[in-house]
Design a protein that fits this description.
145 residues, mainly alpha, 4 helices
């Protein structure tokens, strides 16, 4: 392992630890919020604010866990760098979270811009997947021939 690869692995492990702490704290806050909403306050499942808060927190946890997983792949040397496809997937999840927590009074232009960005990310993901599939198929054909 080169000096830079060792440095990269060390940074990835430190980032992974920091994100793990953030995930645990966020999970504790989510549990506390759900407990308060269900048992202390009168829970109204139709209340948009409650829905936004709880599902926004859940989506944030999912994003953090996916981000940590991608960093762990670097730390375990399964991938040498963060893969673009993983970053695009995390961005798609983040955009989904943004749509979930939008205020009902959000302007249509802002909703359209978020939807457009999400669509663009989806197209990029599709193109990356098609490229990977094509490269895998070409590699398989070269082994056969």
């Amino acid at each position: 392992m080169t000096l830079y690869e060792h440095f990269e692995q060390t940074i990835a492990m430190v980032l992974s630890g920091v994100i793990a702490v953030i995930i645990v704290i966020s999970l504790a806050r989510l549990i506390h919020t759900v407990f308060v909403v269900f048992f202390v306050e009168t829970f109204n499942p139709l209340d948009h604010g409650v829905f936004q808060t709880v599902f926004g927190m859940i989506m944030t946890l999912l994003i953090a866990m996916e981000f940590k997983h991608s960093i762990l792949k670097v730390a375990m040397r399964r991938d040498s760098i963060i893969q673009v496809k993983t970053v695009v997937l995390i961005a798609i999840i983040a955009m989904g979270r943004k749509l979930v927590i939008l205020d009902p009074e959000t302007s249509p232009a802002k909703v359209a811009s978020i939807a457009g960005a999400t669509l663009a990310l989806g197209i990029v993901h599709r193109l990356l997947r098609e490229r990977e599939d094509r490269l895998a198929q070409e590699e398989g054909e070269s082994r056969e021939g």
